[in-house]
Every structure is written in structure tokens, then in C-alpha cells.
């Protein structure tokens, strides 16, 4: 959460036309810049970021340090590629831009994307580095694109001259299948900011790769607990539904799971506000089509991890709708699997039949009135060991459901 | 007459250490293993082994804000004979100066330190220029021997406070 003013130096020289980073070096660089801007502004709302180009007709400042992310992203459009990268001038102009920042309390940082060859001497670069250190400016260098030993040596010397207490870093990104931005996410350029950067990085990684990294579901529970919870709920239901579907059709089980998982993940990632909608989409199919599948779902959920599902089901019940119907449904399902005894596990059954435990759980849930007749019925039925017919209670939730 | 008034001032002067606003003190080009508290803070500066040292080159820029307005009378800078400071420029009431804008404003005073001064003899300042000081910037331009590292063992600022309202002493008047 360091308060920082950053100047990003972009290389728009002829060497950026090369396609060894997909789609082109320039595009990969632009993606990385967007990512960095987002991370900086997110880690501290008062952070400012500015952008300048080092090649082309000359060093040109596109936007002075500002906290307006839209302005920064907009200035990246319509950039022309050409000329040769002028590293020394670029850094000096960046230093000047930082000197005139509005909030003098911000730490100064320059991030340089060095794609083309470096024509300056090592000595000159070291002098520049010393000057930066003297004025307490930190420097991060992303060495990509042209690879030659001299360039690497020069850039290493530059960063070593600036480095004060590990605040400056250099990252070498070789060409390959990994996108430039993905490689950068794990480097100190992002994470060097501490915890603040990593939250954003995790979210970005999840969105990009469709996987999870750091936090579950790519969303920091601290930043957005409701969203994280909703995502987790829909993920689990989807997972259970997949297992139910797998049981139904043994042939297509593996294919279905994979497809279902990736599509459901995309759905949950993109439709933030409408997670309940996607939930209901999934659920509707089950409820309308196959009641057994739901029962299998609850069964599967409890089979996976008895301890965990108790707590998750609690939160499911409390957060997902907090309606009596849903609660009754969920209780029903857990009652059902206790009765069916499909895999011989009886821990859950024991827990559920322990009336005192159940009533204490119910009492702690918001929106549940233990004196409600339907709840009372359920408790009574559980006491007598599950023999209850699902029909009566399921019809009620089914009508009023979604 | 001037000698008398000078000695009168000397009698009242205090070490302004207590009036330094420590949260705002900044030091550019310091070596992080030898930072400014070594020269300014109570316990550290007495220790001869602890110095404030410069890093990339021999210049140092120390910004010292005060908690209230003071008048600065004299300054003591102690340092080793060779690497101790020689030319010191003082700027008053300028915030966030950098090495690039030291040339932009004329300093309130320019001092040249002799080896004697480095032993602890105070250097008296142009008192009239330091009547209303909220913050002081000390720019150490070079050192005695011209080496790459400047070392400062102790900095003492001596002067008096200006009568300012003590906000804590303000009491609410009872409504009639």
C-alpha cells in the first residue's frame, strides 16, 4: 500500500514489430502496461501513474502522473512504432516528470520496458543510476525483446546502481509461449508492492488463465466477501451437479466435467452481479428435470468432506437466499442421504439426527425461525430417523423457487 | 551593544531537538545503514561511532520541519576531520527541496566549516535571517577532503522559540 508516483517508459521502437511475443512485442508490452497501471491504482487509490514513449520522433510524455486509470489506458491507443529507443533521455524525462508530481509525499518510481538494443555505455547508465538513487527514485526494468549479453549487462549495472534496499528490480522475459504480462505478475514488479499488488494480480491471473491463483476464485475475500462467497457457492453447486451428471451418464462423464467446469467458471467470472441467475440456471435444470440429481448432489457434497460441508452449507443457507424454502430443501437433502446410506458413511447422519446440534445450528441462522412449522416438521422427522417422504416438502420449495 | 545583545541571546538559546517534527524529517542521498537519526537523535548522536553518511556522492540534503516557529541562532556540526562537511547551505521554510533546486533559491546562509568547527565549536548564523523558521533544509555541498563519502557525527541546532499560542492551553469560555 505504498503511496507511489510511477512513470512507465514504453519502448515503441522498430524492434517492437517483431512477433516473437504474441501477438507482437508491442501488443504484449501494452497489455503489461495496462496490467501494471491497474495494479498500482488499485493497491492505493492515491497512487498516480504516468506514461511516456522513448522512441518514435523523440521522448514524449503521453500522460503526466494521474490516478485516472481511464486516461492512462486511453493514451495507449494510436501509438506509432518507429525509431530507436533512447533509454537515457527516457529515464531523465521520467525523473523530471516525477519531480513535478503534485503530491510530494509519494515515493518516486520509474518502470522501463527495454525491448530494443541499448546504445548507451555502461558508464553513462551507471551515472544515471546514481543520480536516481541520490534523488531516491526507484527503478524497475523489464528486459524483453532483443537479447544480447551486452544489453543485459548494461541493464543489470543500471539497476544495481539505483538499487537501494531492494526497491529496484530487473526482470528478464525471454520470448516464448508465456505472455509478457503473465510472467510479470509473479515478479517483484507486481508483488514488490507487498500485499496490495498481489490481490489484483490474483484476480488478473484468474481472469486471464481461467484458473485460480493465490485466493480462491481469483477474488480477494477481503476486498469483496459477498462476491467471493457467491462464487464459492455456485462453484460448489456446479461441481456437485457435475458429479451428478457424471453418475447419470458414465460414458460422457469426463468430457462433461471438463466442459462444465470451464464454462461454469467463465460464467461465474464474467457475470458478477448475476451469480444468482447462473445459479438458478443450473438449478432449474436439475429441479425441473431430475430431482434425483439434486439428492445426489447433496450426497456428493457431504461425501466429499463432512466437516467442510457442514460449515459451507451453513453459509449457503444463510447467504444464498435465507429463505425457509431453501433451508428446508437443503435439510431435506441432507436428511435424504442420511436415510439412503449410499456409501455407508454415517457421520453426517449422526450429526443431523442430533437434534440439539441441529436446533442450535438453526437458531444461529438468520431468517430461520425455529418455531416455523415446516422447520419443526423436519426436526421431528429427523429425530425419528429419515423415513420422510421428500414429496411434501420438496413441492413447497419447488413452487416458490426461483 | 551588539556584543551584549549577542551574549544575551546566547544565554536563552536552547537545543532545538525537542521541537523537531520527527515524522517529517527527510534526508536525501543518505546511506541507509547510516541514516540521519545517527546525527540528530538524542542517544545516537552522542555515540561517536554512529555517523550519518552519504551514499551515491558526497552531497547530503536534510529537511527538518519544526513543531513550532523558532528562531535559529547557531549550529554545531561535528564530524571526522577528513570526511566532515565543509560547505553547508541553509534554506528556511522551503519544503521538499531536491538536489536540482538547490541552485534555484539563494540560501538563507552559507557556512564554511573549519576543522575547529567540526570539533564542536558552534557557528553563529545571520540571526536576522532566521527569525521565523518553520522548517530548515541543510544542504551539505562538499566535505573537507573531497572524498566520495561525507560523514556527519552530530548536528545540534541552537536557538529559541517564538511565542506561539499553545493550543492545548486554550480553554473554552463558559457561555453566559
Automatic annotation (TrEMBL), chain A:
Source taxon at top rank: Eukaryota
Keywords noted in UniProt: Proteasome, Repeat
Residues covered by region (Disordered): 240-402
Cellular-component GO terms for this entry: cytosol; nucleus; proteasome regulatory particle, base subcomplex
Protein name: 26S proteasome non-ATPase regulatory subunit 4 homolog
Gene3D superfamilies in UniProt: 1.10.287.3990, von Willebrand factor, type A domain
CDD domains, per the entry: PSMD4_RAZUL, VWA_26S_proteasome_subunit
Biased composition (Basic and acidic residues): 240-261, 389-402
TrEMBL record, chain B:
InterPro entries: Galactose-bd-like_sf, PITH1-like, PITH_dom, PITH_dom_sf
Top-rank taxon: Eukaryota
Record's GO cellular component terms: cytoplasm
Domain annotation PITH: ranges: 5-176
One Pfam family from the record: PITH
Annotated source species: Deinandra increscens subsp. villosa
Protein name per Swiss-Prot or TrEMBL: PITH domain-containing protein
Stated family: Belongs to the PITHD1 family.
